[in-house]
Amino acid sequence: MGTYFEKENLDLLKAQFDTAEYDPEQAEPAIYIGKNQLLDMMKVLRENPTYSFDRMANLTAVDYKEYFEMVYSLYSRRFDKWVTVKVKLEHDNPEVESMTQIWEGTNFEERETYDLMGITFLHHPDLRRILMPDNYEAHPLRKDFVPLEPRIEGGVLTWHKQKSMS
Question: What is the pLDDT of residue 40?
Answer without folding.
Answer: 98
